[in-house]
Fold this sequence. Notes:
Part of the ABC transporter FtsEX involved in cellular division. By secondary structure, the chain is α+β, with helices and mostly antiparallel strands. Helices cover 72% and strands 8% of the residues.
Amino acid sequence: MNLGFVFREAFRGLGRNITMSIALVITTAISLALVGTGILISQVTSDTKDMYLDRVEVMVELDENISATDQDCSSEACQEVRDTLQADEGVESVTFRSREQSYDRFVELFGETDPVLVQETSPEALPAALHVRLEDPTDPTPLDPVRDMPQVALVVDQAEGVRTAAGNLDAFRNATFVVAALQALAAIFLIGNMVQLAAYHRRDEMGIMRMVGASRWFTNAPFVLEAALSVLFGGIVATLGVWLGKTQVVDPMLGEIYSSQLIARLPDSAVWTVMPLVSLVGVLVAGLVAQVTLRLYVRK
């Protein structure tokens, strides 16, 4: 196959259909950017979930009698709860924190950020509690045996909040994928129209080439390459757009949130890993769509 001829004809086709080529590049760029963004959001969601679950605890708050009198979980009521939890294989560790220790921890957390709240909160407002780390933070079943014990005032499962936040991020990701799918569908129709138009303009030349023995692959190759190049240019635009959006908009906007470790930081390398792969898939799909279109449109 004469590759020089194929590339020349492909670039001539792009120039001949410049308006449609630009439309395809823009549509493809938006579609690939949305697909890549959805994948990156999935990575952030997974990393954030792992970050929270790695440090999440379940707090079993004890009743007023234990909170007021027990300093080291030596009472029978407290030991019953602790021993029940420790006997479950799904529990990694159980740590008792007295009322005074809970208040000291409260002051440590909010003393600088919300001093008014600290001043208005007395030690008696905080209960003694057992802080439980689970082997699988997403499975709260090891807590079921102690939930209904009379000396247990409340079971606070912090993992529930993590699951809710992760669900919100997943919903945003899914919405991004839906929009990306619609954009991809538009790009597929544009590819089909562009290939048909290019083949129509070169129908006489293709007929002569087939008459002198040129293979179908050789006559189709410029159109397939034309579609693939358009999507490749769109992929380059999408990659640069996602990278600029992350580094110039998202990272500065979420800088304090990253510092507070509320959301896992996405490294720049993730963009340069995901987007080229997404673009490569887009190029392969474009070539396939172009080939199928030619098979349907060019019968001979």
